[in-house]
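can u pls check wat happens w/ guanosine-5'-triphosphate
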Amino acid sequence: MPKGPKLSPETRLKAIIDATRAGTWEWNLDTGEVVVNDRWAQMLGYEPEALEPMTYELWQSITHPDDAENAKQRMGAYLRGDVPHFDCVVRIRHRDGHWRWIHTRGQRLEDEQLTANWVCGTHLDISEERETQHRLQRLAESLPGVIYTFVLERDGTYRFTYVSRKSMDFYGIPAEDTLEDPSALFDIIIKDDISEVMETIRRSARSMTEWRCQYRIRVNDDIRWMEGVAQPEEDEVGRIVWHGMVMDITERKQLELELERLSVTDELTGLHNRRYMLRTIEEQIARAERYGDVFSLVALDIDHFKRINDSWGHLVGDQVLEQFARVLRSRVRRTDVVARTGGEEFLILLPNTDLPAARHVAEDLRQATEREHFDNGEGQSFTVTISGGVVTWEDSLSSMRDLLSRCDHSLYEAKHQGRNRIVVTTQS
Ligand SMILES: Nc1nc2c(ncn2[C@@H]2O[C@H](COP(=O)(O)OP(=O)(O)OP(=O)(O)O)[C@@H](O)[C@H]2O)c(=O)[nH]1
């Protein structure tokens, strides 16, 4: 390429400054004289001549008082050598009255030949960026959760690069602290849930699919349910970056758990209901098939219960059911499942219990019931008896239906043989 004439340093400098669209300023510290370029004035809506002669006082008169003071402090710090650069953002009033956000930077001229003391710098209008940032912040504040950006580095370390200010309301941790130390947000997750959170993050990273996880955190001795949702993407250097939101779902979760509890609870006795018992038996059968676990089922039925209702009324009948439920609950193990499956019919699932042991439990319950005194509501007490059937899951059974029908059959036998007894059915 043929070489053209060389550009003068002034022309090159001017071209570069024009390209940055920066305003420039020079301030003579000795005389107070200020020189600005045309762009400096145009940014603020002025013809260059309108701001002449430019002085520190004129600048101060159009700058927001808080920011003018801040700029003064920072300039002082710079001139004293406390900080290496002069750098600050100030609001300067545009000619039409609104504030423009101006990023101003400056440096002392270091030239021994210069006789005067000058500080020169640039002046960039960052109002649009500020506006966008402000809008995003407002948006983040109006969302019902903490929004964040989470980065998993290629070496397996992780950090947050953005956390919205709601972090303070949710976790009592300022957003800045979470940027410095990501563990602040992991340490408050309760122990039982942390592995689920980590595993779902790993799974999301592996499959590059949405991360969604419900977990509990402890804040000021209060346990809160959180739900996090985030979308992963791989950035240009191979890091995985999630943009997402964490919401407090404590109230919804409590309602859900309560509904779940109600849907599996018998209202009168507080024991489990039939639906829960059938689900649990299915699970036990699956475990027995897979791991060879032993379990037994006991069916109990109050004898001549109709007579109780007929003699003393339905309310007394209800009280008998409640009291009998208490007897059952107090005599079985915590791992056993007790359910009221019909009017006066009860089922007890005994995990890790073989037939002789289950028979023993049933017999104990029969005797305990026989000893119990019930109140007829008129100051008289009476006793009741129960009949029961016991079965154990074994190879000859092929389904829950088989198991239940064999259990029913045992119970029927107990009634048939005269009640107040336990009948055990083995393989037929
Ligand atoms: N008080 C009360 N009674 C109920 C409830 N559910 C069912 N029952 C009554 O329980 C009685 C059960 O009667 P049956 O099935 O004839 O049995 P039983 O009288 O116990 O006779 P056996 O089981 O053969 O010993 C019926 O009268 C039902 O109305 C309930 O929630 N509360």
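The pocket of guanosine-5'-triphosphate is lined by residues 268, 301-306, 309, 314, 317-318, 321, 343-344, 415, 419 (CB under 6 Å).
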